[in-house]
Amino acid sequence: MKNNLQLNWLLILVVLSKSSGVYATSAHIADSLANKPYSYLEKASNSKKLRKEKAITYAKAWIALAKSKQNWIELTKAYKTIMFLEDKKKLINYSDSLLATAKSSKEHRLLGSAYLTKGIVHYEKKELDSALDNYILAHQHISKTKDDYTIHKVKYAIANTKYYLGFYDETIDLLQECLVYFEEENDRAYLSTIHSLGLCYNKIGNFKRSTHYNNLGLQMSQELENSDMIPYFKQSEGINQYYNKRYSKALNNLKAIVPSIIAKNDFANEILTYFYIAKSYWALDQKENAIPYLIKVDEAFVQEGYSRPDIRENYELLISWYQDKKDMESQLIYINALIEVDKLLNKNYKYLSRKIFKEFDTTKLIAEKQEIEMKMKLRSNMLSIILFIAATIIIALMIRHRRNKKRYRQKFEELMKGKVDLKIPTSKTMEADLEINPEIIESVLYNLERFEKTKKYLEKDMNLNKIAVHLKTNTKYASKIIAKYRGKKTIDYINALKIDHVIEVLKTERRYRNYTNKALAEEIGFGSTQNFTRAFKKKTDISPCYFIEQLKEVNQ
Q1: Which of 258, 259, 238, 260 is nearest to 250 (CA)?
Q2: How far out from the chain centre does Cα 217 lie?
Q3: pTM of the predicted model, to two decimals?
Q4: How far apart are CA 415 and CA 115, in angstroms?
Q5: Which DSSP category does 487 fall into?
Q6: Are residues 356 and 400 in the same domain?
Q7: 53 in the same domain as 102
Q8: How far is the C-alpha of 531 from the C-alpha of 514, rounded, in Å?
Q9: Is the pLDDT of residue 427 over 50?
Q10: Which domain holds residue 67?
């Protein structure tokens, strides 16, 4: 479950910590591993050089050996390792075996860790009641040990679950305890706890207190030199500003952090940010500006099956918008979507979804759906008009196809004649207003030219971090200098060089024309075929397949 409480780091630590479980037999374990020491099997199971299937074989041998010796500590370590390697579908069975092992040991530390792991498995399956039950049992056992760090990890896990159940006051009490402890013990956990407190105070309407924790988080991020959480503190404050009716300020702050959230591949928080951008526009009565962001949130559900209770209102706004526009087709689409969203929320968030105010409840949605369907049925006598329109569209598409074909051919001929700009500007005479030492700029530009001449840009998944190493500078300077002296963002600059290269080799070397898009993408260092084809089309306005097809025709 992706969430705003940023528990992922904590969950990973628990799963990877050395003490938990799952069922596995010693059958089919290679005889050559039967007498290996625990240390050998542990090292092999955790080796990043081995394929996952091979590592699982070592982990199973480790489990078999520990079971035969009734070494509960080694057995729990082996179980936790295999849980990290195995398919997620098997985790519940592994967690049961882990718990059975811990019970055999009768050690509170192992029992607490086992219940904590089992709680995490239930949490990931969105079974929040079972997760909370296991976290409480974990706390009962861990609290009998002197392991303060694990005690507070359990408290944080309980707080996270209570947050999603809507028990915000109880969550705050637990987080305050964690805050005091993590301040001295773990910077990342400390920042995450501050962020969680800001979210909780927002939920109970104490926006002043929420702002306090958001500002504290930004301040401590600077002092601790840890920037990971900065976009999330800014996001939290942007949402807080929305609830304080400072809509313009909320808009500016939320739109500013979108690139950072996207860069982190944080899909859930990207969607949450879009929702509050839309809500801010809506509150400012700029509904036309809100609609594209509302649609982005809907696309997340259509493409990824993702939604959550606090963004359910997204569909109510879309339904209202298209209702006002008298667009029954779109209105029906979003009514049906909201019905599906409610099914998902009632399944995954059955506790919290009951507390969400619903402008459109199920009864009202179904009634509106039926009314719209009836009106649309009455319009069936307009079928002839619809067919006429469809025919017109088909003709228009055919005309468009012909025009595109002509345009594509023209683009191809321009590429063959070299009329399309395939080079990156290399002028060093541009004004250096970058607030960077001129000597550094000169050095970086020199290395940049070497980077281009030696075609280092063809390396696999070349990005800002890697290019900064080649330029012998930091990512900030690299990004600024490339933007200034090459006129492009770093990724666009790298992609342009790659596409320039592949165009030249396709024109001059026949063998590359038989390559698939996937093979071409790999040849010039793209991480995926999709990224390659998108970059090629952006650069040339035609697809690589079309370019190769035309090359073959020309050279027949």
Answers
A1: 238
A2: 22
A3: 0.55
A4: 64
A5: S
A6: yes
A7: yes
A8: 20
A9: no
A10: 8-242
